[in-house]
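User: structure tokens for this one?
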Amino acid sequence: MKIEAVIFDMDGVLVDSEGLWKIAEKEVFSSLGVVVTEKLSHKTQSMTTDQVTQFWFERYPWEGTNHQEVEQMVVDRVIELIQNENCAIKGIKSFIEKLRSEGLKVGLATNSPFKIIDPVLKKSGISHLFDAISSAEFEKQGKPAPDIYLTTAKKLSVNPKHCVAIEDSNSGIQAAHAAGMKAVAFTNNKKNGHHYIVDLIIDDFEVETLPLLEKNKV
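Assistant:
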């Protein structure tokens, strides 16, 4: 199957931001009286910010600040952390440049709000390398639903069967497979306990590549 496009997840793939989201989550919701535990916080890891806000409100309802305002507080704090922390994934720029040099289109499909995308791309110096950008903020369902990947493939004018998705979570991999795409897991050299069902695993963008660069298939 000829590969025509590679679509990247954002958090954990373009920037090492999982810890930053957890910091923002704890700071914002704790300020509203929520008891943020590690066990419950783990459940929110693959949710959209809207879902995370609803998750905590159902357990610890707060007053005086509406749902949208709280969600925006989290987003703004994450943006601040991204701008101030050394969180860009090593090797990502040259990796994407290599894909483009091979004539492949490049897309972005993230569960994160659209507002966060620009700061992330600027942080990594890769704003100019993407042919299509999509946020689940504008979809009926976030990952693991396939909506965001189907939207991105459409923007790229590429059949999903000719796309490869690069993800760091099982929910993202499920979304890619549900869209009919090949899936690659990126671990960033972390032993995170995930058991990925994927076509390929990449640990480090600085030292690894995709077989499709040599054979145009996975």
